[in-house]
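tokens incoming
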């Protein structure tokens, strides 16, 4: 088994995740079994309790791990499912070391950072490779080199390289700012980040130079000289209009990024496969579109200080893009704050999407947006919290239950249309929030002759990923059905309502599950494809 570590320098948010995903794709295209691992340095055990504005979207794997959004990028680029072993946090590492110490598994040794913590990091990295039957494991370190909290992970990579020198390669992603008043890229920050890495006993084998523009020959040679890295092992990674171009950019430089890695690891380079499909994807992104749609994203996790960031909804955004590209449609996404919008904002849209969310903040705005979409025959797609809001809006404005709500937003509502799942009450009573909600892939039985059934191409059972603690209250199911709302997806035992639709509406579908998690650029999710097409009519 071979190991490729990917670290970052100068600033966070450089694109280490996309770099890792791109390299993983290129290595897979050479016929190797690869698996990427994300290492986050915080003491959370998983990402489940983190605020979206704090950390971006929480991605959920098929086996129910709540993790960093980078695992979503990995799955989309590789077109394969990953496992809980593909996500490591400092919280997992230290809690396991302490557990072993309490269980006397160290046999009376003094438990220390080295070797016990580093050994546990290495064990988990190798376990991810074993579980996924990988030839090559790519390990992305979160944060930037030089931060006090991540030094022990770099030390683990140094030890693994020391013990298995022929099996370990280090890729360092660093930043070259373009100074407008000088008119050139500056390499000093990148040089410094390599020197910091050197101080940890690590000499990177490959350098990825992030910048707003391509790296020129002069900067390339200078960076190589001061970083002690041959110019042929430095790759430029400029800003691009879509991340899906990046694998091809790496593939077309120097001696190819994948080829360079394989040569350093002294394993056969093999002929590349699947590159043509990726080129076709990029061509479909760049080609002139026949139609254009504007989708309103009704959310509350955009604002962070003075800035608006889309990271909280990255899987939804990518799923919309995949669907639009596959149908040769130009996609425009309009960010609409559910706490501050006017009706005109909604009425002018081609489609309305209400994504995931938690808590009571912004509930009334989401309900108002759904009401406008339903009343004006505007295509609507609700995801998780979006489905819960759709049922509450229907109860208020169609069934006449004006005080209907979710017990999450109003514990005293006389009409709890959405309530906590029965098995969740014990966890809430004991303040057990982390890792206790309904997570991962669960089967959904689709109602025959429904619109959802036609979208899923007549599949009666589908497996979709979940992340929720509240559900539709089936005490109200009969009233909803009599008023024209159809429960087109249910759990196989019929106890949980998984999807709803209004047959007479142009497109009004909402799901308790998250179809966006399994949408891929080469295989868009059919629900998003159907939604985008409905928005063009």
């Amino acid at each position: 088994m071979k190991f490729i570590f990917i670290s970052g320098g100068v600033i966070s948010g450089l694109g280490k995740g996309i770099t890792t995903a791109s390299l993983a794709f290129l290595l897979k295209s050479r016929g190797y079994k690869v698996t990427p691992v994300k290492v986050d340095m915080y003491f959370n055990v998983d990402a489940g309790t983190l605020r979206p504005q704090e950390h971006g979207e929480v991605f959920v794997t098929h086996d129910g791990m709540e993790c960093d959004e980078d695992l979503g990028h990995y799955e989309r680029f590789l077109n394969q499912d990953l496992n809980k072993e593909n996500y490591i946090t400092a919280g997992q590492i230290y809690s396991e070391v302490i557990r072993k110490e309490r269980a006397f598994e160290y046999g009376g040794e003094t438990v220390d950072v080295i070797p016990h913590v580093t050994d546990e990091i290495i064990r988990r990295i190798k376990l991810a490779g074993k579980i996924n039957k990988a030839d090559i494991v790519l390990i992305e370190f979160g944060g930037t080199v030089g931060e006090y909290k991540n030094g022990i992970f770099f030390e683990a990579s140094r030890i693994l390289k020391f013990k298995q020198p022929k099996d370990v390669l280090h890729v360092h992603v660093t930043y070259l700012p373009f100074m407008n008043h000088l008119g050139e890229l500056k390499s000093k920050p990148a040089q410094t980040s390599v020197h910091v890495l050197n101080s940890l006993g690590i000499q990177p084998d490959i350098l990825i130079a992030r910048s707003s523009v391509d790296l020129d020959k002069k900067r390339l040679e200078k960076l190589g000289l001061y970083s002690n890295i041959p110019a042929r092992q430095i790759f430029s990674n400029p800003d691009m209009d879509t991340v899906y171009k990046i694998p091809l950019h790496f593939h077309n430089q120097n001696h190819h990024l994948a080829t360079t890695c394989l040569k350093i690891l002294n394993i056969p380079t093999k002929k590349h496969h699947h590159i043509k499909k990726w080129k076709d994807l990029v061509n479909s992104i760049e080609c002139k579109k026949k139609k254009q749609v504007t989708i309103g994203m009704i959310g509350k996790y955009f604002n962070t200080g003075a800035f608006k960031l889309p990271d909280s909804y990255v899987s939804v955004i990518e799923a919309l893009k995949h669907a639009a590209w596959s149908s040769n449609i130009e996609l425009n996404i309009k960010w609409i704050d559910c706490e501050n919008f006017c009706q005109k904002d909604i009425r002018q849209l081609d489609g309305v999407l209400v994504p995931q969310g938690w808590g009571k903040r912004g509930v009334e705005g989401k309900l108002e947006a759904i009401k406008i979409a339903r009343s004006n025959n505007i295509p609507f797609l609700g995801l998780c919290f979006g489905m819960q809001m759709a049922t509450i809006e229907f109860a208020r404005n169609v069934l006449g239950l004006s005080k209907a709500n979710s017990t999450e937003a109003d514990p005293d509502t006389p009409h709890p249309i959405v309530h906590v799942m029965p098995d969740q009450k014990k966890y809430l009573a004991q303040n057990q929030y982390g890792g206790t909600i309904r997570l991962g892939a669960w089967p959904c039985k689709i109602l025959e002759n429904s619109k959802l059934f036609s979208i899923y191409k007549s599949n009666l059972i589908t497996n979709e990923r979940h992340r929720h603690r509240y559900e539709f209250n089936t005490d109200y199911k009969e009233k909803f059905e009599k008023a024209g709302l159809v429960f087109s997806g249910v759990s196989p035992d019929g106890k949980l309502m998984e999807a709803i639709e209004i047959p007479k509406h142009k497109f009004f579908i909402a799901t308790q599950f998250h179809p966006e998690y399994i949408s891929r650029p080469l295989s868009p999710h059919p629900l998003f494809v159907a939604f985008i097409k409905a928005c063009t009519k």
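note: The longest strand covers residues 291-299.
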